Amino acid sequence: MRRRRRKQRGAKPTGKLRITSMMDILTVLLLFLLKSFVADGENMTPAPGVELPKSTSTENTESSLVVAISENDLTIGGEPVAQVAQLMQSDRMLIEALAARLDAAWQKREHIAAAKGETVDELGQVTIQGDREIPFEVLQKVMFTCQQSGYGNISLAVIQNS
Amino acid sequence: MAFKKRMGLGNAIESDLEILPLMNLFVVLIPMLLLSAVFLEISVIRMNLPPEVAAEDAQDNSGAKESLLLAVTIRDDAFVVEGRGIETAVIARETAKADAGGVVPAAEDGAPSAETRLQELLAGIAAAHPENEEAMVIARKQTRYDDIVGVMDAVRDAGMPQISLLGAGN
Questions:
Q1: B86 close to A (CB below 8 A)
Q2: Strands B78-83 and B134-139
Q3: What distance in Å separates the CA atoms of residue A119 and residue A113, rounded to the nearest whole number?
Q4: Is A145:A95 a contact under the CB 8 Å cutoff?
Q5: Which residues of B touch A46 (CB under 8 A)?
Q6: Rounded distance between C-alpha atoms, residue B48 and residue A14, angstroms
Q7: How does strand A153-160 pair with strand A73-76?
Q8: Which residue of A has its CA nearest to B33?
């Protein structure tokens, strides 16, 4: 029974999907996507909730500690450390919570350097991803805190305006 | 069973490339790559803050060199460009920008935007003082980060790559 049915169907011309052209598209797309991964510089993704400002700067990003300032939170390495609203209210320039995290990161760096038999003599590098709407006051405090903790090499992340 | 059927069919009628498995692979692979692809080109503006100790020395040096001391102050209503031996210029800005919720309104036809005029002014200053590479950007506490980056761009594009960022009183 089953055999016969199969034979019958086999005798008929079959309607096959013509996917060769689609394959072509997909192959080209795949190549383009793979090419987009081959970019110089460190690939950096903006922190969630942060809308970076646009700039004409073309300098490449480097891997470093990331301090992100969204409209509500201040995060370091993805972990929230403080509220932006609180920072704006406080009169102090130093952000203790951030400083503590930065110092911890600095110690870790020294530890690694010591294990390698090197010494840490250069400035620490940090990238600040600030939302375009944040007031300068907050940025200033964050930069001040970074500098106090020895991270004098500060980069401001921006979106390349092409 | 199904496999046999297909084999038999293919042999009998036509020999076609079996690209369906490859299709399946692509259908999975491409959305995955699309998801992880970065379409925004992120770059950085490098700010090299001098260490705390060296700050005073740097100030002394700049005084001795008789530098231009070009300063661009970002006020809510205007950009103020001043410097040693330069006529102070005030460029009025559209104030509507601050409360537009991040959407920069298009400049009115004909009149160049404040940013454009600032760029032209700075380019003129840079042309008159080619040896000067330093400039100060002075921002107020409430100045939007976006505006600061915009002014820093204008200054850098004018040919003064060493930008210091300063905070004004209030």
A1: no
A2: unpaired
A3: 6
A4: yes
A5: 40, 42
A6: 70
A7: unpaired
A8: A33
Calculate how close chain B gets to A52, using CA atoms only, in Å. 8
Q: What's phi and psi for B30, nearest 5 deg?
A: -70, -45
pLDDT tens track for A72-93:
888 888 888 888 888 888 888 8
Range of the domain at A91: 54-160
Do A89 and A121 sit in the same domain of this protein? yes
Report the mean per-residue pLDDT for chain A. 81
- A83 and A156 housed in the same domain: yes
Instruction: Give the Cα separation of B52 and A93 in Å (integer).
Output: 14
**Window 90-129 of B, Cβ < 8 Å to A:** 102
* Residue B5 φ/ψ, nearest 5 degrees: -60, -45
Number of domains in chain A: 2
Rounded (to 5) percent helix, strand, coil in chain B = 40, 20, 35
- Each of the 170 residues of chain B gets a pLDDT tens digit; together they read 555 555 555 455 666 777 888 888 888 988 888 887 766 778 888 876 655 544 455 555 554 456 678 888 888 888 888 888 777 888 887 754 444 444 444 445 566 788 888 888 888 888 888 887 888 888 888 888 888 888 888 888 888 888 888 887 66
pLDDT for the residue numbered B104: 47
* B19 reaches A (C-beta below 8 A): yes
**Domain membership flag for residue A141:** yes
A43 part of a folded domain: no
Q: Which two tokens stand for residue A90?
A: 């406080």
pLDDT at residue A132 is higher than 70: yes
Q: State the number of CA atoms in the 13 A half-sphere of A121 facing the CB.
A: 3
What ipTM does this complex have?
0.72
A57/B140 touch (CB, cutoff 8 Å), yes or no: no
Residues in chain A closer than 8 A to B39 (CB atoms): 36
Contact A159 B42 (CB under 8 A): yes
**Pairwise CA distance, residues A34 & A28, whole Å:** 10
What's the CA gap between B84 and A39, in Å, rounded?
Answer: 43
